[in-house]
Amino acid sequence: MHRRLSYALAAPLVLAVGLALTGCDNRAAQEASVPLEGLLVQGRVVTTTPAVNGCEAARLTARESDSTVSLTLRIRSIYRSGQKCSMIMGRRRISTTLREPVGDRSVVDATTHETVRPQG
Questions:
Q1: In degrees, to the nearest 5, what angle opens at C-alpha 111 toward C-alphas 106 and 115?
Q2: pTM above 0.85?
Q3: Residue 29: what pLDDT?
């Protein structure tokens, strides 16, 4: 059992090392919507802290209605041919400003379609 667990923990490390050795070439021109993590709301400003690597940029967008704030987090490759970049993941603060404070409106993750309970 202990040996199976160590193999399971080693798999992501092997994948990360493989990606680091090959560089970001295989990630060029990619963009994906990802689930929100650790959402913080302060007045009209909504912030999240996604995990991204040195070849990626994140963008948080909001669509507002009278009853809902729908948030989309997109991560895209910013790799340029010949560029060296770190494949080590790190957290970055990404924010967007709403037209109006959240108030009584529901906050929804547009990627998972789940209601999110923001902090703050």
A1: 25
A2: no
A3: 55
